[in-house]
Amino acid sequence: MTEPGNPGTHPGSGADTAVGPGPGADRGLTALSSIDLNLLVPLLALLEERSVTRAATRVRLSQPAMSHALRRLRQLLGDELLVRQGGSMILTPRAESLLAPVRRALNESSRALNRTAFDPATDDRTVTVALTTSTAFVFGPLLRAMLDEHAPRMTLRLRTGDMTSPSIFTADGVDAVLLTEGLHSPHPRERLYDDRWVVLASPGIPKDRTALELLGQERHIRFEATGMQLRPYELLEREGVAYRVGETVSDYILIPHFLRETRGVGLHRFQVASLFVQRDGLRMLDFPFPIAPLGIDVVWNPWLSDDDYRDWLRRLMLDAAAPLRERIHS
User: Fold this and answer.
1) What is the mean pLDDT of the chain?
2) Strand, helix or coil at 146?
């Protein structure tokens, strides 16, 4: 006799098949029993370092032992993983696809086994943010100051370069990317702070001239990027404003430097320009035609699995950007 509410255990009752997983359940986990999970740590090191020597040093293995691990991984996965191209090693497409899930799995396993709560006051990880040099110039010191106050043991790594690379979150281990609103990202984004276009002029230029006069009469130091036309220059051409370019640069930070040392004008963003106005005595004027404002957005690494750290860093970055949000409206 069975107790009320309990299923019977006699043959055919189904109780013996209801206990535990049914046929085919957790096949993926069962398959792991045939794999040496000790290879996962060397695998991640190889994928991130892209060097047998550096990977061996990182996980404290000898170079022959790491080479042996790579051979076993290649055999296990049926892929070369690392291949030589020129003077460096690159990841195969299969290796690229493994990087994020292996990193996530090992990070989650480490947290589950260590059971240590995230404490920014004692955490010594590296915070990695990808951004342009102009954004780094404005936002980097503010973020470092916040880290000094709330997480003094953390290292800040600012990575400049191609913000739209598909591998930026995987190969480069970036926590967050700061993008101007005109640059596309397939991942969710939120506004960090606002910006707008302004005209910068050298200190020696007479101050009684308007922005439109400056843009038409003085030579321009212009930012140039392949296949990209800046919105304010599109407007100048649409409005029939003739202008002369004296220099072109591939980094916005060089524009105010040239304006301080030579005579000319340049188009820049308010947040950066206002700092150079205070420091170098440049003149800043509003752009003479109506133009859509700019915004700097933050895009989070979609594979960043440490929720406590991500939520804390989000609040910290928003707090760090508060002076920039206030400055734009002053």
Assistant:
1) 85
2) helix
| Distance of alpha carbon 181 from alpha carbon 203, whole angstroms | 31
Residue 261 identity: E
Neighbours of 62 (CB within 10 A): 10
Q: What is the 3 state secondary structure string of 23-67? A: CCCCHHHHHHHHCCHHHHHHHHHHHHHCCHHHHHHHHCCCHHHHH
Given a contact cutoff of 8 angstroms between Cβ atoms, the answer to whether 95 and 82 are in contact is yes
CB neighbour class for 71 (10 Å; exposed up to 12, middle 13-18, buried from 19): exposed
E-strand ranges in the chain read: 82-85, 88-91, 126-130, 155-159, 176-180, 189-195, 197-201, 219-223, 244-249, 265-269, 283-286, 294-300
- Mean pLDDT calculated for residue range 97-104: 83
Q: Is the C-alpha dihedral spanning 82, 84, 85, 87 positive or negative?
A: positive
**Cα 102 from Cα 45, distance rounded (Å):** 10
pLDDT, tens digit, for every residue of 214-238?
999 999 999 987 666 789 999 999 9
Phi then psi dihedrals of residue 190, to 5 deg: -140, 155
Instruction: Quick: pLDDT tens for 253-273.
Output: 999 999 999 999 999 999 999
Question: Residues 52-59: what's their mean pLDDT?
Answer: 88
- What mean pLDDT do residues 123-132 have? 93
CA distances from 34 to 38, 45, 94, 158 (A): 12, 22, 21, 41
215 vs 145: CA distance, rounded Å: 37
- Cα→Cα distances 171→51, 91, 245, Å: 13, 9, 38
Distance of alpha carbon 112 from alpha carbon 297, whole angstroms: 32
Q: If pLDDT is split at 50, 70 and 90, which confidence band does 321 have?
A: very high
At 83, which amino acid appears? V
